[in-house]
């Protein structure tokens, strides 16, 4: 009996003391390893004399970063940056606005009204330090927004000053793109349908070229406040070749002028397109038929002097045919008062 007791009591004592101790230790281990697992998700680890620590960071910053694991979502960033924002305040002195144009399509060139129509994407980029949010631990390193928010931001108020019409594509919503970067860079992009003026010089018609240009500038701000620049891309075509029914684009360039107005100097960004008329149609429809008509009228000489009615008929017919032919071509041109190449012919 006493033997049996002697065996059981120490065992019971061991069990009595061990059970709570192991479970407490297990809890500590569990907590630590959970913590370790969580931390090790973010960092590489290395050993030094103080024990295990994340590579390249002190344990303190590792902990504070770890505690701020919840990043700022878009709505939180927006509400934070927009609350103190004043859209009438020009961001800093001399905002640099970088402009880039992508030409999607050139649809028409009208000889009568001397204008052309095109679809473009125009993109502007500037820095607005009041919109910087890099200190907020953003979840995403760019904010993509719509035109509603753009109305609440400062913009350079730039426009095409020589366009005849300009419309933002609206289907199914305004085609406006707005992105804000953590450093406060604002990037906007519009899809526009524009028509602008062309300079036509018909003296070489139909072997002439047409130059069309559009000028973009900030409407409200002179160079003290806004400086406009072409981006390195400048004007780019989205299609390999821009060919219309009767014109082909041969050259394009872009440049910047500084122009003086009563209220100061303005930067004007101009893009210019040069088109060459495709004269194939005129060869077939004007030069060849009139050449044949003249040729046929020479038959009159072969008819001899006695065939008066036939000769008269031929002469008058040729004259009518020619007048009709030219009338057809001239009808689609503006009524200029100088002599064109085709008139000489
Ligand atoms: C954004 O974060 C805030 C605060 O952290 C939260 O209240 C809100 O629900 C979040 N919004 C979305 C769309 O996740
Ligand atoms: C915006 O951020 C996302 C992820 O953060 C990235 O994939 C995308 O390329 C960025 N877009 C631009 C235009 O910078
Ligand atoms: C701001 O960040 C964007 C995207 O990373 C970059 O393209 C732009 O040049 C930066 N702007 C400035 C002024 O550093």
UniProtKB/TrEMBL annotation:
Keywords: Cell membrane, Ion channel, Ion transport, Membrane, Signal, Transmembrane, Transmembrane helix, Transport. GO terms for cellular component: plasma membrane. The chain crosses the membrane at residues 279-303. Pfam families: Neur_chan_LBD, Neur_chan_memb. The keyword Protein biosynthesis does not apply. It is found in: Cell membrane; Membrane. Residues 287-344 form the Neurotransmitter-gated ion-channel transmembrane domain. Residues 1-24 form the signal peptide. The keyword Transport applies. It is a multi-pass membrane protein. GO terms for molecular function: extracellular ligand-gated monoatomic ion channel activity; transmembrane signaling receptor activity. Residues 77-279 form the Neurotransmitter-gated ion-channel ligand-binding domain. Belongs to the ligand-gated ion channel (TC 1.A.9) family. PANTHER family: NEUROTRANSMITTER GATED ION CHANNEL. This is Ligand-gated ion channel 50. The lineage of its organism: Eukaryota, Metazoa, Ecdysozoa, Nematoda, Chromadorea.
């Amino acid at each position: 009996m006493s033997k049996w007791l002697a065996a059981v009591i120490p065992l019971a004592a061991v069990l009595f003391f061990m059970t709570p101790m192991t479970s407490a230790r297990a809890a500590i281990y569990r907590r630590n390893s959970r913590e370790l697992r969580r931390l090790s998700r973010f960092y590489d680890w290395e050993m030094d004399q103080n024990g295990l620590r994340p590579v390249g960071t002190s344990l303190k910053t590792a902990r504070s970063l770890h505690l701020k694991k919840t990043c700022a979502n878009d709505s939180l960033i927006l509400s934070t940056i927009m609350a103190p924002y004043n859209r009438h305040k020009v961001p800093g002195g001399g905002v640099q606005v970088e402009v880039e144009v992508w030409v999607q399509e050139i649809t028409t060139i009208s000889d009568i009204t001397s204008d052309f129509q095109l679809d473009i994407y125009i993109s502007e980029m500037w820095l607005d330090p009041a919109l910087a949010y890099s200190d907020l631990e953003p979840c995403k390193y760019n904010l993509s927004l719509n035109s509603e928010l753009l109305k609440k931001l400062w913009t350079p108020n730039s426009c095409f000053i020589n366009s005849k019409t300009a419309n933002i594509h609206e289907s199914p919503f305004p085609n406006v793109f707005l992105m804000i970067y953590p450093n406060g860079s604002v990037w906007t992009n519009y899809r526009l349908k524009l028509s602008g003026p062309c300079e036509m010089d018909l003296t070489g018609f139909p072997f002439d070229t047409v130059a069309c240009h559009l000028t973009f500038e900030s409407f409200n701000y002179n160079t003290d406040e806004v400086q406009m620049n072409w981006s390195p891309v400048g004007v780019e075509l989205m299609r390999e070749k821009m060919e219309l029914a009767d014109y082909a684009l041969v050259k394009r360039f872009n440049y910047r002028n500084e122009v003086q107005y009563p209220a100061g100097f303005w930067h004007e960004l101009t893009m210019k397109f040069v088109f060459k008329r495709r004269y194939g149609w005129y060869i077939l429809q004007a030069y060849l038929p009139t050449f044949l008509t003249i040729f046929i009228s020479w038959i009159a000489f072969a008819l001899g002097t006695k065939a008066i009615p036939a000769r008269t008929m031929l002469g008058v017919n040729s004259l009518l045919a020619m007048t009709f032919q030219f009338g057809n071509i001239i009808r689609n041109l503006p009524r200029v008062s100088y002599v064109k190449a085709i008139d000489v012919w």
